[in-house]
Amino acid sequence: MSLTYSLGDLTIHRVIEQETSFVPALEMLPGLTGEVLAENRAWMREAKALDQQDVLLLCFQSYVVKTPHHTILIDSCIGNDKPRPQRPKWNMKTDDTYLRALNAAGFSVDDIDFVMCTHLHVDHVGWNTRLENGRWVPTFPKAHYIFAKQEFDHWSAQNAKAEIPPFADSVLPVVEAGRHELVGNDHAIGDHVRILPTPGHTPGHVAFTMGRGKDDAVFSGDLMHSPLQTHYPELSIKFDVDPDAAAKTRRSFLERYCDSDTLCCTAHFPSPSVGKIRRKGNGFVCVAV
Ligand SMILES: [Zn+2]
After folding, report:
1. Which regions span the lipid bilayer (predicted)?
2. 113 C-alpha vs ligand 1 centroid, how far in Å?
């Protein structure tokens, strides 16, 4: 399986931390009925999106994009040494899978110019920081970390009420180190990197579009989690903060890119995780390239 894609003057690398069973489909997607699951079970299993117990299989990964000017890491996964007692597979991890995958793609932590987070959930900020002598420090010491201001403000307010561990250990230390930049939705980096607001999963969730003057690739973050949601865009997951907004965002995103040449790079679809959006019935499908 190739983990690298070349498009226009971009090179895109997948850096995988985990690909594993997550939450039962019927629990994760509250609007999913047993009947619809049964109709889709065969292709979902074939696609390794569903296991034998009807638990959704998800990939947890970063994308590293090389533009002619910069090396950009999108979403920093789960991280090590972080107390996540609700999720045994994420709790106090010490494995070197992620950093080895980064190296295998040809990068060291010093090579990353920008870290961009689609949103500030636990599995998208983890490697923002690493533990050094008992302190959280930026994992990518030379990077500017780009956070959407609306998203940052939301979690900042939540964290003020009661500590949100991934915000406290994986976002605030970056701010304290002075490596962050809070940006509006009109932010761009050169003529290759743009922001597409995609609210719903979280209030300030954004997608990133890349390519010189046109969207060669789009990084969709958590606006969808399972390929089942391309067929049924109205199915929101139980972690969507605003399920109705998430459903609307999903359909308009899929409509925007269907029948285009843009490579859709999802955060969590099972490998290969990327594809082109095509229409299928009243919904869509993400077709591997
Ligand atoms: Zn996620």
Report:
1. none
2. 22
Mean pLDDT, rounded, of the chain? 97
* DSSP track, 45-95: HHTTSB-TTSEEEEEEEEEEEE-SS-EEEE---S-SS---TT-TTTTT---
Name residue, tokens 């969507």.
240
How many whole angstroms from 123 Cα to the centroid of ligand 1?
Answer: 5
CA of residue 121 to ligand 1 center, whole Å: 7
| The token pair that represents 95 in the structure block | 């494995």
* pTM of the complete model: 0.97
Query: How far is ligand 1, taken at its centre, from the CA of residue 84, in Å?
Result: 14
Q: How confident is the model at residue 213 (pLDDT cuts 50, 70, 90)?
A: confident
- Angle 236-22-288 (CA atoms, 0-180°, nearest 5)? 70
Cα–ligand 1 centroid distance for 223 (angstroms):
9
126 CA to middle of ligand 1, Å?
11
- Is residue 69 assigned to a domain? yes
- Name the residue range of residue 62's domain: 4-25+33-222
Residue 233 lies in a domain: no
pLDDT at 2: 81
14 vs 190: CA distance, rounded Å? 23
d(CA 45, CA 134): 43
Residue 125 Cα to ligand 1 middle (Å): 10
Q: Is 263 domain-assigned?
A: no
Cα 86 to ligand 1 centre (Å): 15
Distance, in Å, from the CA atom of 131 to the CA atom of 83, rounded to the nearest integer, reads: 12
More confident residue, 1 or 2: 2
Residue 15: give its domain's CATH number. Answer: 3.60.15.10
- Span from the CA of 267 to the centroid of ligand 1 (angstroms): 7
235 Cα to the center of ligand 1, angstroms: 16
